Amino acid sequence: MVTPMRYGQFCGLARAMELVGEPWAMLVVRDLLLGPKSVDQLHRTLPRVPAETLSARLRELATGGVVRPARGLAGEDTAGEVYELTEYGKELDEIVVRFGLWGARSLGEPAEGDTFSLDIAILSLYTMFRQEAAHWLRVTYEIHFGATVVHAIVDDGELTVAEGPCPDADLVIEALGNIKPMYAGEITAEEALASGLVRVRGDSALLARFTELFVIPTAPVVPHTV
Predict the structure, then answer these.
(1) What CATH number has the domain spanning 12-91?
(2) HSE on the CB side for 171, CA within 13 Å?
(3) Coiled-coil region(s) at which residues (predicted)?
(4) Mean per-residue pLDDT for 8-37?
């Protein structure tokens, strides 16, 4: 069995890296943020992780108090095969979101074989959401990323994202390519429509509002001075 990395430093950051810094560990945490998952489900959302590596990560995360076995999904008693975040693990929520937003600034075009899962679609919207742009606003979007469909409900600064269509969505957005440039403000909503990058049904003016609500910042972040 591979021994998890030990940095030998009495430092909170070093300890955090020992807990979740091993390959695939943070992605396991990411995929558990939306709720418990079985080992088989984690294999489906992380198709390139070897089975023995996933088992090792789950053991290490459980030992560190980040995850724990959960009761089965859909009423099935499969305790020990289904995992969930502990309260300690759930505290990684904001960290994962902020880290993901930082990484999203460097995304280019997806490589052949890159996976874009339902969980990634949902968490990406939570990651990019600008609460300050949503006060006093009520709007519902249905977004199609190929065969993956989610809906996002914005209600006075609060965001709820879930799987599936929304029959009364104010705007249906169909992504016909990589829409990261639209999130990053590299192209406008009008340019995305004109170029065929997206197709919409409903009030097309709400696409511009969508790009104000879900944003990948491109400006450099000024570092905090200790």
Answers:
(1) 1.10.10.10
(2) 20
(3) none
(4) 91
